[in-house]
Predict the structure of LacI family DNA-binding transcriptional regulator.
Amino acid sequence: MVLKKATINDVAAHAKVSIKTVSRVINNEYGVSRATKDKVLNTIKRLQYVPNKAAQGLRSKKSFLIGLIYDNPDKFYLSDIQSGILETCAINGFSVVLFPCDYQDQKLLNKVREFILRTNLDGLILTPPISDMKDLVQKLQEDIPISIISPGLLTENKLCVSSDDLKASYDMTSHLIGLGHKNIGFIKGHIDHGATQYRYDGYLKALADNNIDFNKENIAQGDFSFDSGIKAAKKIFNKKDHLKITSIFASNDAMAAGVLKVANEENILIPEEISLVGFDNSPTASQAWPSITTIEQPVKEMAAFAAQILIDNIQNKVNKKPVSKIFDYELVFRESVKKIK
């Protein structure tokens, strides 16, 4: 026996509301009370009604597609970003189209615009370092609704989510100082990521507030990749006065893992000789030996929120208000740090 699929008419009849009201609930439009909305949603669930997105798209001129633009070497970061966005979009009846790119591509704006037209997107989500490209962001905002994850140095975007990188870095550096570390090496992240500057500034501020002189020789440039962490570690360890350094703060866990690899190769004991901390609390940090002290950012939750505010903005034309949220962080203490006298 073939079961008949529920229709919008069935939902309206069972919920004792008009078809228009059911349509408003499905499209998350204004003008429906909380009680009525809950009644309709419960009826939809009970009848297992599945809205026809193709038909909805034809009526509303929406594709129910959101594009995710990214160029980031950290696969764990991207995994959390994608998971948060995909789950939120699925709940709301949207699908995600991925667009990996080279942020340094001179034709990036044209390629993104072609991508938008080719897939008929309803909105875009941008991630670092694309989200830090002010001119590109402003031009794309003229074409399509945009939500930005970790906007870095950009603060005027209508829809954005971020974490307080400066304060997180400040607190981690202060933690090291509190354990007796005064000569702290620092590995900077990608030069085109806004978060890189915030994390570096937090480190510098903690040194200044604790009356510790800044030594530029303790700084190495990375790009958030494992290989760049290896290069930065070799640069620091090859300096004549590297033995004075008692700890290293890498701007993300991938680079911290690179430091750990070099330390093992050069028989430098972590944390007995040098303490090590990272940033992001990726699986790498917990799986390494010794496990790496780091900073937890709720990347998946940030991505989910970015997707939700974008979908709300797309569906609620009469209420396109700016929405932003700064997520909290947490210091995660593990085995890679030691108190010194």
The first strand starts at residue 65 and ends at 70. The chain has a mean pLDDT of 88.
